[in-house]
Specification:
It holds the Pfam family EcsB. InterPro entries: EcsB_ABC. The structure is a single chain. It is built from 13 helices and no strands. With about 375 residues, the chain is mainly alpha-helical.
Length: about 375
């Protein structure tokens, strides 16, 4: 089997797998009541946006409110290679096949990102034309700029292994691209695209240094829709990641939280560290606080304090449920705890996690009310 046949065979197989995933979710009731009405509503909304753009977008709004989401969407995705773990066995014997497979995957990704850039520009065309007075040439320059940014972003994301360095560069790249999107230059964009394409064809694709990274990307891309469905499924508990990675900045060296050693302090420290090291739980905690702060800042006077009271009640219930979840860990089946100290530890745990966000949101409510 040639490399082209192998590529298209794997491509078609993935399309079929993804279709089966969507088909398992989009049954007739979802199609009838959600999918089809959403498509119809979206089409009518886009048509009405062309006719009455002033009803949806004010000219005083900064153009970055449109460019930022467009740039964020452009960062999604990866360079596809359609490699499998088993290909590692044939890497030495069939280098040409692997090389051709990577080239085809790169150009397939290039075509997808080109279509993605054109679709994004098409979606914001009514606002850009009628509010910010972009010309057709400006829109094409913007599409070319998005393509150049997307290819550059994905390249950096692939070739840099060190997480701190990679995310620092990606952040600076995004900030620079946001500023550059205000005045996109077709020549600069074209040069960036040429540099990315040439670097891939002459070095990155030929080099097997990123082979394991490419395998990891393929596994991620194949299961991303399954994980998306699981994340939105209320019946399925989201298990934490099983890969152990060293933290970038926080909690790199674990030490004792409490100087005084006792059963209560030991159990509380164990529960706190379990919470802080669980990304899902910790980021949910931050999201609750940020969402409440946003609501308090935006809503009128009397609703601010209603939101704060509801948040105070909810965060108490949530932290209590969180404590119960952490205590149900299989670890405590092997190492049982003294039941006499659990109530005291639970109360201290709730206070430690409830007091900071309640005080912070309360201060924000007071300041936003006074000012």
């Amino acid at each position: 089997m040639s490399a082209k046949q192998l590529f298209f065979r794997r491509l078609v197989r993935e399309w079929k797998d993804q279709w089966h995933i969507f088909h398992s979710v989009l049954d007739w009731s979802v199609l009838l009541y959600i999918a089809i009405p959403s498509i119809v509503f979206g089409t009518l909304f886009y048509i009405d946006l062309w006719r009455n753009v002033d009803l949806y977008w004010h000219p005083d709004f900064p153009i970055l409110l449109i460019l930022l989401p467009v740039l964020l969407v452009s960062t999604m995705g990866n360079f596809r290679t359609y490699l499998l773990k088993a290909d590692l066995l044939f890497l030495i014997q069939r280098k040409k096949t692997i090389h051709t497979l990577k080239i085809l995957g790169f150009f397939y990704t290039f075509v997808l990102k080109t279509i993605n850039s054109l679709v994004l520009v098409f979606m914001v065309t009514p606002v850009m034309l009628k509010v910010y007075y972009y010309s057709f040439e400006d829109l094409m320059n913007l599409a070319l700029y998005l393509l150049a940014f997307s290819l550059t972003f994905l390249t950096v994301n692939k070739i840099i292994d060190h997480r701190l360095i990679k995310w620092s560069i990606l952040f600076l790249l995004f900030v620079g691209a946001t500023l550059g999107a205000l005045f996109p230059n077709q020549y600069v964009s074209s040069i960036c695209i040429v540099v990315v394409v040439v670097s891939h064809l002459t070095y990155i694709i030929k080099n097997n240094h990123w082979f394991l990274r490419e395998i990891e990307i393929e596994e991620y891309e194949k299961t991303k829709y399954v994980r998306l469905i699981i994340n939105f499924s209320a019946e399925v508990e989201k298990a934490p990641s099983s890969t152990f990675k060293k933290p970038i900045l926080l909690w790199r060296k674990s030490g004792r939280i409490f100087k005084e050693r006792s059963q209560q302090n030991g159990l509380l420290e164990l529960i706190l560290k379990g919470f802080l090291r669980d990304r899902g739980l910790f980021f949910t905690y931050l999201q609750l606080m940020l969402l409440t702060c946003t609501a308090i800042y935006i809503l009128p006077f009397w609703l601010k304090w209603v939101i704060w009271i509801l948040f105070f009640l909810f965060i108490n219930l949530w932290t209590k449920a969180l404590y119960t979840k952490l205590m149900s860990s299989p670890f405590f089946s092997v190492v049982p705890t003294n039941e006499g100290i659990e109530l005291e530890v639970c109360n201290r745990f709730i206070k430690l996690l409830t007091l900071p966000p309640v005080l912070f949101t309360g201060m924000l409510s007071v300041l936003s009310t006074i000012l």
